[in-house]
Automatic annotation (TrEMBL), chain A:
Database matches in SUPFAM superfamilies: Sortase (SSF63817)
NCBIfam families registered for this protein in UniProt: class_E_sortase, sortase_fam
Residues at the catalytic site: H200, C268
One GO MF term attached to the UniProt entry: hydrolase activity
Bias kind Basic and acidic residues: ranges: 16-26, 42-51
Transmembrane segments: 60-84
Record-given protein name: Class E sortase
Lineage of the organism: Bacteria, Bacillati, Actinomycetota, Actinomycetes, Micrococcales
């Protein structure tokens, strides 16, 4: 009579009369279940001694099952929270922190004579090799570990997209805050060579979730205390997690002397799996000193809070 | 377990449902405000996005 899917029928010594009584209350052999017919049947506790030990086992199994279901629901809730709820909070924080940095730099600008160091090419007065004949980019000195020193704007990632860039790529110290991190061994913004940053693609605000949607020529703006560096997206590459040569001054050509001013964005790939790395390269197009004001496309975005 | 909790609640069905909804809301708020950030910090750095040797 018990269905094959009924887990309780597999227990030894299952009281058949009681089960029959539950399903057919008028059965003459049925034992009293001691409970009215209402309520979930799994929680019935027969008053007779014969059924008590078995009912304890059944209650324990029932509670264990409900606990397991609860644990599963909690895991999914955590994943959902990590992907969406936490991202909203982190993105608001990021927007406010990025705005705070811009306002701070605007309030106390570092004069063009004050940069801690300049690029060799800049000091000789040569325009950027690939630039539009504009101002030679100022290159700031490397900041202290975990210090937020730049703001990243990528209109392709969203009309109001901006994230902080902090020194270092340690997950807990930098990346899990929802911004980007700068590979310490790579160049600073605007410098000859490779300015390489990393950020999460899914979770922790998902700052680089749209890294695969960049189109050739898309602007990538980096703002520092000295001004705005406008990079143009060039190409994408997929590498293994060990592919550190993408960070070289000339990507994939270690020890070669740099001739371009590049930006390199690294994140995980595929989405939600992260067995590979997606690498997006951009080339410096122009530099706008702080005294000249922000580039038109992001002028309304700079210094604006969430 | 949940069946017992349901029977412990007093009042008519609509009141019990209200109490359960409020309790679930409180639990969700506590989870997302305190528990999940704590768990997130305890988990290993999370999904790697960097290239490492």
């Amino acid at each position: 009579m018990a269905g094959v899917t009924d887990i309780f029928s597999l227990l030894p010594g299952e009281p058949e009369p009681e089960r029959r009584a539950r399903r057919e209350p008028e059965a003459p052999e049925g034992e009293p279940t001691g409970q009215p017919a209402s309520g979930p049947s799994s929680d019935r506790r027969p008053r007779d001694n014969r059924g008590r030990s078995r009912s304890v086992v059944r209650s324990a199994i029932g509670v264990a099952g409900e606990l397991l279901i609860t644990a599963g629901v909690l895991v999914f809730l955590f994943l959902g929270w990590q992907l969406w709820i936490q991202g909203i909070a982190l993105n608001n924080t990021q927007t406010n922190e990025a705005s705070g940095l811009s306002q701070q730099w605007n309030a106390s600008p570092v004069g063009p004579v004050a940069p801690a160091s300049t690029d060799p090419a800049a000091s000789t007065g040569a325009p950027p090799a690939d630039g539009s004949g504009g101002v030679a980019p100022i290159v700031m000195a490397a900041p202290a570990e975990t210090k937020q020193f730049a703001v990243l704007y990528v209109p392709r990632f969203g009309a109001d997209y901006k994230r902080t860039i902090a020194e270092g790529v340690d997950a807990k110290a930098v990346l899990n805050a929802g911004g980007a991190g700068h590979y310490e061994q790579s160049a600073m913004p605007g410098a000859m060579g490779n300015f390489a940053i990393a950020a999460h693609r899914d979770g922790w605000g998902s700052p680089f979730i749209k890294i695969n949607e960049l189109k050739i020529g898309d602007p990538i703006y980096v703002e520092t205390q000295d001004g705005w560096y406008t990079y143009r997206y060039r190409d994408t590459e997929y590498v293994t997690p060990e592919g550190v040569d993408v960070l070289s001054a000339v990507p994939q050509v270690p020890d070669a002397a740099p001739t371009d001013r590049l930006i390199t964005l690294t994140s995980c790939n595929p989405l939600y799996i992260a067995s590979e790395r997606i690498i997006a390269y951009g080339v410096l197009d122009s530099f706008t000193p702080r005294s000249a004001g922000a580039p038109a496309e992001i002028a309304g975005l700079t210094g604006k809070g969430a | 377990m949940y069946g017992s909790l349901w029977r412990v609640l007093p009042g008519p069905v609509w009141l019990r449902i209200l109490m359960v909804v409020v309790a679930v809301a409180i639990i969700l708020f506590a989870l997302s405000t305190w528990v999940f950030p704590l768990v997130d910090g305890l988990l290993t750095p999370g999904q790697p996005v960097t290239v490492d040797p």
